[in-house]
Amino acid sequence: MSNFLGADMEHKNNAKWIWITVGILLLAAILFVAFIDMDALARIFQRVEWQYFLLGVALLVIGIVLISVRWRFLLQNKPSFTPTFHANSVSYLLKLLLPVPQALIRLTAFSMASSTSVYQSAPMMLIERFLEIIMRLVALSLAIVLIFELPIWIAVLAIAAILLLGIPAFVLWFTQNTSSSVTRIAARSAQLPDLSKEKLQEAMLDFQSDISTLRAARGITVAIVYSLIMWGLFLLFYAFGFQALGFRIDTINILAMSAMVLAVLPPSTPAMIGIYQGITVAILLPFGILDTNQATAYALLMFGGQLAVWVILGVWGLRKTEIKISKLSSGTFEENSE
Q1: Taking each helix axis from N to C terminus, what angle separates 292-320 and 50-74, rounded to the nearest 10 degrees?
Q2: What is the largest CA-CA distance in the chain?
Q3: Which residue from 164, 178, 271, 317 could staple onto 86, CB 3.0 to 4.6 Å apart?
Q4: What gap in Å lies between CA 24 and CA 189, rounded to an integer?
Q5: How far apart are CA 196 and CA 109, in angstroms?
Q6: Angle value at C-alpha 230, between 217 and 182, nearest 5 degrees
Q7: Under the phi-then-psi rule, with left for phi > 0, alpha for psi from -120 to 50, and beta for the rest, what region is 270?
Q8: Would you give per-residue pLDDT tens digits along the chain (338 residues)?
Q9: Contact 207, 182 (CB under 8 A)
Q10: What are phi and psi of 274, to 5 degrees?
Q11: In whole angstroms, what is the distance from residue 225 CA to residue 122 CA?
């Protein structure tokens, strides 16, 4: 009876997300038709300099590869690169298709594609979430300095302060909030019926004992270096998008707008169509540099580049691994052991 009720609840949740998705797409389509000049949009895309766009996409792919490199580093290089890369690619593709949290899809895909169990990799998701927050703050600091034309040393000082204070703050927070973290993760993991909450709690407690050591702090520092390189590549991807569209914008403003978009919509956190374009246009218009048609063209180009990369890499990952979409969508996984 409980399994039936659980399946019924899951079906209702999926149906709810499907209707929400349909509603967002319809709203985006209505706004697009109402506020966008199709002829002007077509003229903008006719002038696209594809060499700049393809260069940006190449940098995007390198940044995506670094996501897997960083993930392997956090797990002490236990899984090989190939299954790690394919599992990450599949998870980012399916995030655009399934109403399941990114972390759960990624843990499940990673468990299916490698010999690393979900309990070994689950604590690493906390570090990745922390790194994402840090990088968003770094990108936002850079954007603010560029927007207000402040001396560059202020940006360097702000970023250094974020990085230097971020590591001890994370260690202190986690060591004092392990129990509540386990509770939240267990609650969010309810969609994985095969997950043992007892094993998850044990893994989190082991992680708590390790995170305060000097070795762990050094590891997080190296992970931050990987993140800085990765997000630097993402910043250039967004910047080359402006260059590809041929907008006459000076370098400072290009970097400022790119940094602001990056802080809100990093490629490492896929957003669905409609939401991505709406947020991007809302970010760019206050700068007073682009009109609605130009901002929309930029949003469509950047989303198209990311979507193409995730689809190609995700389909490749599905073909090269034994990951099944049916298992991911139902929230089941096979627990592997080394």
Answers
A1: 50
A2: 65
A3: 317
A4: 26
A5: 17
A6: 45
A7: beta
A8: 334 334 444 445 555 655 555 565 566 566 665 667 788 889 999 999 999 999 999 999 999 999 999 988 888 777 789 988 998 898 888 877 766 666 777 777 877 777 677 777 777 777 888 889 889 999 999 999 999 988 988 888 888 888 777 777 776 776 666 566 656 665 555 555 556 666 666 666 666 666 655 556 677 788 889 999 999 999 999 999 999 999 989 999 999 999 999 999 999 887 777 788 888 999 999 999 999 999 999 999 999 999 999 999 999 998 888 776 666 655 544 444 44
A9: no
A10: 95, -60
A11: 22
Look up residue 93 and give its amino acid: L
Rounded to 5°, the CA angle 245-250-256 comes to 90
**How far is Cα 337 from Cα 18, in angstroms, rounded to an integer?**
35
- Token pair recorded at residue 236: 């250039």
Residue type present at position 237: F
Which residue's structure tokens are 């979900």?
Answer: 118
CA distance 227 to 244: 25
Q: How far lies 195's CA from each of 8, 185, 198, 293, 332, in Å?
A: 19, 11, 9, 47, 8
Q: Give the count of beta carbons closer than 10 Å to the beta carbon of residue 194.
A: 13
Q: How many CB atoms lie within 10 A of CB 245?
A: 21
pTM more than 0.90: no
Provide the token pair at 248.
């006459």
Structure tokens at 308: 């193409």
Exposed, middle or buried, 319 (CB in 10 Å: 0-12/13-18/19+)? exposed
Report d(CA 229, CA 242) in Å as an integer: 21
For the chain, what's the residue count? 338
Question: Concatenated DSSP letters for 223-243?
Answer: HHHHHHHHHHHHHHHHHHHHH
Torsion angle of the four alpha carbons 335, 336, 337, 338, in this order, in degrees rounded to the nearest 10: -160
For residue 53, give every residue at least 6 positions away whose Cβ sits within 8 Å of its Cβ, in sequence order, or none: 240, 241, 244, 301, 305
Amino acid at 41: L
> Does residue 143 contact residue 231 with C-beta atoms inside 8 Å?
no
For the chain, the domains span 36-330
